[in-house]
Amino acid sequence: MQAAMEGISWKLFLLSFLLLEGSSQDFGQTQFICTSVPKDMDLCAATMQNSGPAEDLKTTVLQLRETVLQQKETIMNQKETIRELTSKLTRCESMTEPGDTRAGSRRKEPGSSKDTMGDVSRGAGDTLSQLGQTLQSLKQRLENLEQFSRNNNSAQANSLKDLLQNKIDDLEKQVLSRVNSLEEGKPGQKNETEQRGKVESTLTSLHQRISDLEKGQKDNRPLDKFQLTFPLRTNYMYAKVKKSLPEMYAFTVCMWIKSNASPGVGTPFSYAVSGQANELVLIEWGNNPMEILINDKVAKLPFVINDGKWHHICVTWTTRDGVWEAYQDGVLRGNGENLAPYHPIKPQGVLVLGQEQDTLGGGFDATQAFVGELANFNIWDKKLSTADVYNLATCNSKAQVGNVFSWLESSIDIYGGTSKWTYEPCRQIN
User: Which residue in 163, 164, 151, 161 sits closest to 221, CA to CA?
Assistant: First the structure.
């Protein structure tokens, strides 16, 4: 009996020593644990059988340690990012004074008479360039009015023309004065927003007065001989088609377009429906090529039109296999398929010219606005043939007008300073 007890005690001592040896490698302080083991049981087997909880604990500790190390590394990376962003912010703040309206600032001065918060941030050079283009377009309109007044001997037209010419001369002097101020390095940046607001307000007034004057010519010319001008990249200049589109399983969209805007001419038109703002959109944004979007599916178009010249463009599409074609100046420039196949264009939407819609009828982004001139915008609910497109581009007398939407002044409302005036792009190619 005594020999048996000594055997059991010796086994317990060995087992405790093994547990102590295995645990002391990973934990600080240790303690002896006595566990009874049957006499005929192998000590190694007993040790492995009783080491389950210890091994689980060891695995858990290692996992926790790895997690802590990973979190520490993440925190260090975030601290470095925060320091870098703080440094950049400090440099930006040091370069831009309060009220500064140079590139990168969208702040509006309290004295500004016009809301310009939607305008794209631009430097003085860009602003002057765009104002110069606007003044040039006003001059062209006045030349048309002069021709009209000479042909009709209208004293009232002559009087209004002279008044508007004086206003334009005053604006040119303001622009010239601004250029001289910039060249001489005179301080004037603080008042730039206020001056710009006044100039834009005057331009809007001039656009309106010229438009009123041109209304007197409506009885003497066809209602489709006009164009829309979007002189500045803002989120408030646009035109809205008065009626919606029907459901379409095919379409052709054609227009005359002129722009030298860079980067990207913007959005000539967008059609949004409930639940889908990108039902049908034509857009050239940033340095990307022009794209056609149908139900938010995209195809890149091979158009090159931002050279300041009039171009005729057409896009055809059919829901069957999503086949599309792109024409520029009467010539097929590209085609493809699988563009929103078997998705009909939905009805009861909003058709906007000059802006891209992020919501139904609104949500305009100034960076996506169209800058340039637009005319003879027509939509058909069918695919036009190559011959039909060529007739349109060459102003052939056989050219069709849109059976879904045709280009008429009475079909469009304009907003925000967009101008509507007499012009025929076809004169430029005949």
Answer: 151
Q: What is the dihedral of CA 343, 349, 350, 351, to 10 degrees?
A: 40
- Contact by Cβ (8 Å): 181, 195: no
Single out the residue of 277, 275, 218, 271 nearest to residue 405, CA to CA: 271
Nearest to 362 by CA among 349, 375, 374: 349
Between 224 and 228, residue with greater pLDDT? 228
Burial class from Cβ neighbours inside 10 Å (0-12, 13-18, 19+) for residue 262 reads: exposed
Confidence tier at 259 by pLDDT (50, 70, 90): very high
The helix-helix angle for 155-184 and 192-215 (nearest 10°) equals 160
SS3 per residue for 179-200 = HHHHHHCCCCHHHHHHHHHHHH
Among 323, 326, 310, CA closest to 254: 326
Which of 24-33, 72-81, 261-270, 330-339 has the least mean pLDDT?
Answer: 24-33
C-beta atoms surrounding 58 within 10 Å: 16
Average pLDDT, the chain: 75
Q: Which residue has the tokens 């041109």?
A: 214
Where b means 16+ CB within 10 Å and e means fewer, 381-412 reads: bebbeeebbbbbbebeeebbebebbbbebeeb
Look up residue 4 and give its two tokens: 């048996």
Check if the beta carbon of residue 339 is closer than 8 Å to that of residue 292. Answer: yes
Tokens of 166: 């004086």
Among candidate residues 190, 188, 207, 197, the one with its CA nearest the CA of residue 127: 197
Residue 26 is encoded by which pair of tokens?
A: 């990973």
Whether the bond between 289 and the residue before it is cis, its omega within 30 degrees of 0, is no
